[in-house]
Amino acid sequence: MDNLIFSFNVIMPIFLVIALGYFIKEIGLIDDRFINTAVKFNFRVGLATLLFENIYLSKLTSIINIKLMLFVFLCISGSVFLLWIIVPLFIKDKKRASAMIHTIYRGNFVLLGVPMGMYMLGKSHMGPISILLPIAIPTYNFFAVLVLAAFDERGDKNSLGSKIKYTLLEIVENPLIIASFLGIIFQLFSIKLPLFLERTVSDVASLGTPLALITLGAQLEFKSVRENLKYSLIATAGRLVVIPFIVVTLAFLLGFRKYDLGAVFILFSAPSAVSCYIMAKEMNSDYKLTGDVVILTTFFSMFTIFIGIFLLKSLSLF
Fold first, then answer.
1. Distance between alpha carbon 169 and the CA centroid of its chain, in Å?
2. What are the φ and ψ backbone dihedral angles of 99, each rounded to 5 degrees?
3. Structural domains of the chain ordered from first start
4. Alpha-carbon torsion 253, 257, 262, 264, what sign?
5. Transmembrane segments in this chain: where (predicted)?
6. Please, how many CA atoms are within 13 Å of residue 274, restricted to the half-sphere of its CB?
7. Which among 87, 117, 255, 258 counts the fewest CB atoms within 10 Å?
8. What CA–CA distance (Å, rounded) separates 214 from 317?
9. What pLDDT does 164 receive?
10. Which residues of 184-203 are buried (b: 16+ CB within 10 A; e: fewer)?
């Protein structure tokens, strides 16, 4: 019973805040302009400050885990290449195939993973989550460009190099990457912020989690989900069941436990990233299918993550 209560207390606050975001958008309290502005602000300020604070307050020796970082990188890369081989065998439409690969391998680690880590691991144990963000974000973005450009039928394949170059530039300028390295530098050189700055950072960082969840809920649109139901359900199962089951099992067999295993679970059980839809629209993928998968994975992750947390707790793996 204790494990059920723990799992419920982790997952319900997250999805109630997401539901609040959806509700206030539906009643017209906020509009698309506000949502777009809030998303940009939170990405560049709220979440970046939260990430900096997590690393700044952690002991670097306790969060730098080369084995864990390498494992995550190889799992993301391996999932992309396996999907690249398997999906086109069954789906000949290149737009649809790229959407399936993209939504299955790429999780919403920033908007949902970080808040879930706060509730599941606790603020004092966010080190593994914080150190995986600078690994997951560039890897996700790089492979997104590679996959979508490779399956693009418009004939502008010669622009792949420029797309990759642009993506690398985006990674370098990414506020979360910058915040991570700033946090590491402050730790390495034992730079201590004055008390008034620490409190300012803490106040701004406290915006990151609730604002991320509210804007995630506000971006959900359920109207067109029926159009690609067969493919979107397959992608949803791949993202929420197959990928986390395989990766968490591998992590367990390689000896990861407690907070490291929890971080792996959070990263690979998160629903498909909202940014998948934006990239799909820009790079000639099936953006309607992509949007459907984002919606379905976000909804069903409430149940799959709950079950996953319960199983980890029941088996004393976390």
1. 20
2. -65, -40
3. 2-312 (1.20.1530)
4. negative
5. 6-24, 70-91, 103-122, 128-151, 171-189, 232-255, 261-280, 292-312
6. 19
7. 255
8. 31
9. 65
10. bebbeeeeeeeeeeeeebee
Say which DSSP state 315 is in. Answer: T
pLDDT in tens, 165-224: 666 676 677 787 788 788 888 877 888 889 999 999 988 888 877 887 888 788 777 766
Cα 305 from Cα 270, distance rounded (Å): 8
Which range has the worst mean pLDDT, 76-80, 151-155, 247-251? 151-155
The predicted-structure confidence for 269-295, as pLDDT tens digits, reads as follows 999 987 787 778 777 788 888 888 888
What is the overall mean pLDDT for the chain?
83
Task: For 63-115, write each residue's pLDDT tens digit.
Answer: 678 899 999 999 999 999 999 999 999 998 888 999 999 999 999 887 777 77
Which residue has tokens 């953006």?
A: 287
Q: CA-CA distance, 295 to 90, in Å (whole number)?
A: 23
- Give the integer Cα–Cα distance in Å for 182 and 187: 9
pTM of the model: 0.81
The closest alpha carbon to 251, from 118, 78, 107, 62, belongs to: 78
CB 119 within 8 A of CB 52: no
Q: What is residue 107's three-state secondary structure?
A: strand
Structure tokens at 113: 């993973």
Tokens of 316: 């004393």
DSSP string, 180-203: HHHHHHHHHTT----HHHHHHHHH
